[in-house]
């Protein structure tokens, strides 16, 4: 509360965070060192100092409390400070959960791309094997397939698969470069990549996409609303205890 001035370092920091104002959290620490009326003035002065740095319609969340392992000063708003402390911890916990959710969603999206890529390579390979005869020139046959995959329904056949969107399909031109580096003869059909003990690679990816990763999202509470703060739950009665206080 005694250091509300905006210096060069803080200006540079907010400039770096421009466009990410919704992710900023501000803590007004040592709030219990001020009387109520003075705290209100300091709270207003804080936003006055930060206003030139934050050009958004909704200001960042400000947590007002005293974050240290000591009891709050007497004759201060202990209930408010404790609720603010709990709100901050819940906010931090939500940030961690969102980060985990984003990671899981990214992994699932990557798994979908791997699955589609595997299906496409398998389709290219199967088409190549179907078109090959004893007298065929393998290089010419495959060049024909790569140059015009639509003639052989390469991509359309993948769209007929379950859980494949046209928006997930990669660029056709990319496979010209891909097979220029990786010869088609270096691959095996997906049906040949199954074993009695290890199962099939494609089935494992399918299971991860449709069941395991969504279940993992559910296990960390996706979509759950945070509990409403109440003194019955938080214990913010007449003599609230600072949860950071050392025994």
What does this structure look like?
- InterPro entries: G_DYNAMIN_dom, P-loop_NTPase, TRAFAC_Dynamin-like_GTPase.
- It comes from Bambusicola thoracicus (Chinese bamboo-partridge).
- This is Dynamin-type G domain-containing protein.
- Residues 1-105 form the Dynamin-type G domain.
- This protein has 247 residues and is mostly helical.
- The protein has 2 domains: 8-76, no CATH class; 104-222, Topoisomerase, domain 3.
- It is 51% helix and 5% strand.
- It has 8 helices and 4 strands, in the order H-E-H-E-H-H-H-H-E-E-H-H.
- It has helices at 8-16, 36-50, 78-131, 138-147, 154-159, 174-181, 201-219, 231-234, and strands spanning 25-28, 61-64, 194-195, 199-200.
- The strands form 2 sheets. A two-stranded parallel sheet has the order 1-2. Strands 3-4 form a two-stranded antiparallel sheet.
- Helix 3 packs across helix 4 (138-147) and helix 3 runs antiparallel to helix 7 (201-219).
- The protein is elongated and about 95 Å long.
- The chain starts with 7 loop residues before the first helix and ends in a 13-residue tail after the last helix.
- The model is unreliable at 225-247 (pLDDT under 50).
